Amino acid sequence: MGVMNKDRVNIVITNHVLRYSYHKNASLDRVIDQGEIPLPHETIKDGNIVDKTTLRNILIDFVQQKKWKRKNICFCLPDDSVVIRQLQIPAGLTKSEALGYVQTQLGHSFYLPFANPALEIEFLDINNHERSILLYAYPKDKIDAFAGLFRESGLRPIVADLTSLSVYRYFYKQSELNKDHILHVHWNWDALVLTAFHHHKAVFTRYIKVEMMEHRNDLSEETIEQTINEYSVEINRIIDFYKYSISKGQADINLILLTGDFPYLQQVKNTLRQSLSTEIHPFTDEVDDLKYIDVLGLALKEGI
């Protein structure tokens, strides 16, 4: 089980809901509280806060109702804007020096689709002259906007994370499976996020919008089946892309983690099994509701 330094609130942000959990001790065996807060339409759109007043009021009421004022909060940002790049830097740099070097190269040797990024790096292989790194970039303005609203509601934001990293954290801390090329398929009502992991590091991510949210109360079985088939083809394409482009034909995805709040995940699993021989990790033996794996994985984040 995971270790936490102190009790805290954990919130996962999506375009249509805030999912939360609260734990008073260091074990996930005893969840004090968990649930979700539905958001009015377009309060958050494409990962951006559109209606700041509504979201602030929802958070203030939520914190007051739970009596969580001044509690620490960890939050997961929407995964729609994260960029992962593999870069080469001079060998021999420390992590802080490497980050400084990357910042000097931004806009010259490589580019990002947004300004003012928050950057993190992971070291990979090194030779005599160069080191490979993974660069993770996210719009800092988005982080600051959500952190600011949490402060205004009475909470104390201490760390921001990504949903894909939280789900993977839950998996590797709870599972004994030894797989080294893993694809996380996070399927929500309005988005499909595909993230590949190798050696416990996210090496690739793809965000795909799913146009079902506005019609979710009026969906026929035929429409659901067509949608699942359509996006399952995209999942197969990403698996092929990982094999032939990311790993240069040297490795294939050998495990799929399937999570999210899309209520037809069992049908998704059945469809994928018809087209893939890849093992799909069930998670169903570990939690009652798959949609809470992301927030439980966030609660397991250590070193805070």
Automatic annotation (TrEMBL):
Domain of life: Bacteria
Any Pfam family: PilM_2
InterPro entries to which the protein is assigned, alphabetical: FtsA/MreB, PilM
Annotated Gene3D superfamilies: 3.30.1490.300, 3.30.420.40
Annotated protein name in UniProt: Pilus assembly protein PilM
Organism: Ornithinibacillus xuwenensis
